[in-house]
Amino acid sequence: MNFDRLAPYYNGLECLLAGGLMQRCRTTFLPETKNCRNALLVGEGTGKFLVELLRFNPHLKITCVEHSEKMIRQARQRLARARLDSSQLHFKHMDALDWTPTTEKFDLVATHFFLDCFRAGQLEKLVPLLAKSTAPGAIWLLADFQMPGRGLRRIRARMIIAALYLFFRFSTSLPASRLTPPDNFLRAAGFVLLDRRLKSLGLVHSDIWQKSDRAHRRPVGNPIRDKRGFQRPAKRSFRGPHRCSASHSCHPSAGRGGNRILRRSGLLAVWPAVQNGRTDAYDMKSSETSKNPEA
Ligand SMILES: C[S@@+](CC[C@H](N)C(=O)[O-])C[C@H]1O[C@@H](n2cnc3c(N)ncnc32)[C@H](O)[C@@H]1O
Fold first, then answer.
1. Residues paired with 155 in a beta bridge
2. pLDDT value of residue 8
3. Is the CB of residue 43 below 6 angstroms from any atom belonging to ligand 1?
4. Could you tell me if 3 and 68 are in contact, meaning their C-beta atoms sit under 8 angstroms apart?
5. Of 108, 142, 198, 270, which one's alpha carbon is 20 to 30 angstroms from that of 50?
6. How far is Cα 42 from Cα 171, in angstroms, rounded to an integer?
């Protein structure tokens, strides 16, 4: 894979085809990085997220892993234009698949529009590799394309995603030829999904995941059915380690309502079955049905 050829045109193409959508996705959870001190950005590209991150959190130490020299050059130019202090920023020009877990632990990882470049077998290696360099409670931000559950949205997304893969395979020799959701790999690496926002009719999602130390982790949401019989997560069901403000929808104190319903309805008895295997379909479906995709 080589993004060098595409690097000079990447921002122009993004603007032309998606307007501000991708940048809105990258920065959705930016406020949640306010307590972070040491960040690892992987496949950062032309530095659009990097600049906003540094602007928001100027004291952050940042390591940027990027395979394309020309992308790094673009990112450096963007930083210079923004006149931000980059003394705490280090670019590593390397293949992320060759990353060796460091003794240095990161409390923030960001992989925007990056994980969807890889095949499942590569993600199986890459995600735990990066996760090994994270501190307990670390946050992982990502934005990626996804396939909505059903209907016209799914047909639309299928066409757009197929066209994107065709284009990137041709222009960069992208290894992946189809989308692999990273959810299972992140969960297996000890991360839990705190929040997911869908945009553009469910075509793209922005996620915030957090490293949990608990041996048995629950998927996000509780299997409560709405009036029409769809499973939907209880709002704010997450109760793991956390840093968000109390008003934030995923604050631990906010999860009690849903869990009380779960206890009373006896659904806790079937919870292990939900954990053993069906969680992914459930997660994707529930996030589709529970959140209003933003235009
Ligand atoms: C689709 S672009 C996304 C760029 C940027 N993160 C964004 O939000 O637009 C993928 C980026 O990942 C980089 N990349 C691809 N494979 C990589 C690898 N194995 N190791 C490091 N960087 C890689 C590419 O050079 C490119 O900059």
1. none
2. 94
3. yes
4. yes
5. 198
6. 20
Q: Does 113 contact ligand 1 (Cβ within 6 A)?
A: yes
- pLDDT recorded at residue 213: 72
* Cβ 93 vs Cβ 69: under 8 Å: yes
- Read off the pTM: 0.76
Element (H, E) at 79: helix 69-82
Give all strands of the β-sheet with 38-42 in edge-to-edge order.
89-93, 61-66, 38-42, 106-110, 134-145, 204-211, 191-199
In this structure, what token pair is assigned to residue 177? Answer: 């030829």
Are 20 and 28 contacting, i.e. CB atoms less than 8 angstroms apart? no
pLDDT digit string, tens, across residues 115-155: 999 999 999 999 999 999 999 999 999 999 999 998 999 99
What gap in Å lies between CA 291 and CA 34, rounded to an integer? 25
Query: What are the φ/ψ torsions at residue 141 (nearest 5 degrees)?
Result: -100, 140
In the chain, which segments carry CATH 3.40.50.150?
A: 7-211
Inter-residue contact 56 to 34 (CB < 8 Å): yes
Cα–ligand 1 centroid distance for 114 (angstroms)? 5
Task: Note whether 89 and 79 are within 8 A (CB).
Answer: yes
User: Among 169, 140, 129, which Cα is nearest to 3's?
Assistant: 169
pLDDT over threshold 80, residue 273: no
Asked whether 65 lines ligand 1 (CB < 6 A), one says yes
Q: How many Cα neighbours within 13 Å face the side chain of 284? A: 18
CATH superfamily of the domain spanning 7-211:
Vaccinia Virus protein VP39 (3.40.50.150)
- Amino acid, single-letter form, for residue 224: I
Q: Are 66 and 43 in contact (CB under 8 A)?
A: yes
